[in-house]
Amino acid sequence: MSAHASPLFEPVVLGSLSLPSRLVMAPMTRNFSPNGVPTEQVVEYYRRRAAAGVGLIITEGTTVDHRAANGYPDVPRFHGEDALAGWKKVVDAVHAAGGKFAPQLWHVGNVRRLGTGPDGTVPGYGPMDKFKDGKQIVHGMTAEDIRDVVNAFAQAARDAKAIGCDAVELHGAHGYLIDQFFWEGSNQRDDEYGGSLDNRGRFAVEIIRAVREAVGPAFPIIFRFSQWKQQDYSARLVDTPELLEQFLKPLAEAGVDIFHCSQRRYWEPEFEGSALNLAGWTRKITGKPCITVGSVGLDSEFLEYMVKTDKVAKTEANIDDLLQRLAEREFDLVAVGRALIVDPQWPAKLRAGRFDEVLPYSREALKELA
Fold first, then answer.
1. How far apart are the first and last CA of the chain?
2. What mean pLDDT, rounded, does the chain reach?
3. What is the pTM of this model?
4. Rounded (5°) CA angle 251-254-257
5. Which of 45, 176, 266, 361 is an active site residue?
6. Is the pLDDT of residue 364 over 90?
7. Of 56, 68, 60, whose CA–CA distance to 136 is shortest?
8. Cα dist. 25→45, 234, 325, 347 in Å?
């Protein structure tokens, strides 16, 4: 197995991004940054994964500087001197361990609930107003609101480059703000940001263009998207390769360098008549490098382990299929989530074929930073 796994640990150059391996740490919210500031514990959490062989660390979602960006307690900010100083320590530690680093820039949108910090009076912001029991719980974004959020993403990317990050990832997946504009179920606006697929993608295009202007032509921009949503696991943004092309091309042309293609199960074909997964189709359509993700190395998909259950996930499953797809260049990079939450040495153990030493994932693993 160690010989078979070696392609995962080959250095790779993707445009201006040079990585020591094809392994990526997937972004995973951990809620261990009081007042939004990464602690020394967070520094060590990311450093250990880089030292074990992860080529690119993509952080948990980090909120941009907008009053409604945050939706959860103790998630990190990517704005303010204190938070940026904390992230600078993480960047330096990951670099010292041999890895590369990209923050995931995030706005939760209408997922935010009244009472959420830092100002509990601020409702969620989204494509449309939403009221409950006579109280506004979601503020439908005006043109000025859209400009503010676009500028917040651009400033966060500018700050990321300034503190030495190697790339940024824009969170356009899983039913958060950017994705809420994509998804017809949550975006029924009647202006230039709603209606057609092209119009629903306009908000993301404007963010990408602003980020590109902020960081210059060579700094890598990663864009994460998904078909499934937290609000609807069976949702599909597009149903055909033709519609996927219509969706992706404007994003690529706006400045995306790498697409991070989120699936619940990476091995599932995206469309009938082809074995290609979402990353494979995205790479074929855009010609851009792609990251695959979704239950990599686990014997079942993630939802079984995110509810109250005594089950644990094994980590030896599906590796051979993954490596075959990588060898065929269906995708370029492989993101790993839960296996890395519980076991920072997972890459080193995989490389050496020491599967009997791999720690299984369970829901209990979310309670601490290992």
1. 25
2. 91
3. 0.94
4. 75
5. 176
6. no
7. 68
8. 11, 25, 19, 10
For the segment 241-257, what is each residue's pLDDT rounded down to a tens digit?
Answer: 999 999 999 999 999 99
Q: Residue 298 has what pLDDT?
A: 57
DSSP 8-state assignment for residue 121: T
pLDDT exceeds cutoff 50 at 357: yes
Q: Is 176 in the active site?
A: yes
User: Which tens digit of pLDDT belongs to each residue from 141-166?
Assistant: 999 999 999 999 999 999 999 999 99
What pairing do the DSSP bridges indicate for beta strands 168-171 and 12-14? Answer: unpaired
- What are the structure tokens assigned to 338, written together? 């839960």
Residue pair 77/91 in contact by the 8 Å Cβ criterion: no
297 near 343, Cβ under 8 Å?
Answer: no
Structure tokens at 358: 């791999």
Alpha helices in the chain (DSSP H): 2-5, 40-51, 81-96, 143-162, 177-182, 197-200, 202-215, 241-254, 278-286, 319-327, 338-342, 346-352
Contact 183, 117 (CB under 8 A): no
